[in-house]
Amino acid sequence: MLATLTTSSVDVISTVNLPPTNHHGWPWESSIERKAPLHASDLPRITVVTPSYNQGDFLEQTIRSVLLQDYPNLQYIVVDGGSTDQSHAILDKYNEHLSVVIREPDEGQSDAIAKGLALADGEFFNWINSDDLLMPGTLWELASRCRPKVDLYTFSVEVFGDDVKSYLMHNHNLSATAMLRADRYSFSQPGLWFRTKYIQDCGGIDRNLNYGFDWDLLVRYLADNPNVHYSTSVGARFRLHAESKTVVEFAKQDEAANRFLQESERIRDKLEASLGTSLANASRLGRLRVPWNDWLVEKLDDRDSSPVVAASTIGWRAIKQPHVTFTWRTAGTILRLLSRYVRPKSSIGQRNTPRH
Description:
Layout (H helix, E strand, L loop, with lengths): L1 E3 L7 H4 L30 E7 L6 H9 L6 E7 L6 H8 L5 E4 L5 H11 L4 E4 L5 E2 L3 H8 L6 E10 L2 E6 L6 H6 L10 E4 H6 L11 H12 L3 E12 L5 H6 L8 H16 L2 H25 L5 H14 L1 H4 L2 H15 L2 H7 L5
Parallel strand pairs: 2-3, 2-5, 3-4, 7-10
Antiparallel strand pairs: 1-4, 5-9, 6-10, 7-8, 7-9
């Protein structure tokens, strides 16, 4: 079932339902103040898609975090894959404020996002999953600071959860070559804002992928649109909980059963066949570097072994395949190991001792 509504003239801040009792702070209460009245025509159109399936415990927070941006030229699309929990009641509650609501079975998260992308009419595009949140002012910053030559506008993302100490993920060194080659880079999808036309031009969301479709999209997008802006602001919050795909897959003891890792090989096969020679070669190098990088992490995490022995082992093995292993990541790992050796134990204790 598809419902389409026009909400550009609606003042969301004053008309959205009051938050449930005993809920305070963002996104239950708005913290955004307009400095002056603005019309939608004065601002670029932004499309946000929320794919959802049985996420009723979190969906309302996600919806409010988007609506309470109070951004006048917003197209907000929610795609529900046939939930059987309280999601329908939440969608009914906010229905008049949503641009498009799709309620029908789908083939998974990538299929749901692709449905939203097919209806997108904004200049900028991103999806915010139904257990994540936008931070106050994100859309306003995007609209006011994204220059015409910027292909991808990025924010930092806060990772949080009931049993997780919050920390920040920073988008860093994003390029098709760096990602394919497994160089030192990092990305967090809720903080990435694409130009809608460029997503469509590079082939859009691959509905056949369920775990690494964001990585696949980003590589294809950056291959043609390499100009990235890195904002210092925190633009979104990424929630980890017991049912998160990330938590479920990476909690598996057997790496061979991790569906993110399984799908990554399929993605590389596809990209190597479709991208140019230079990027295909970068991906082939990346296949060799990924296990090397994983081994470096193991060495760094091993606190029982001698750091000097570990650093020496890394250096000796690196000599055998220099085109694969002579990287900044390798050098950084060796330096971090040696820093443990040269730092006096007393200084470690002093660093962790509270000062009054």
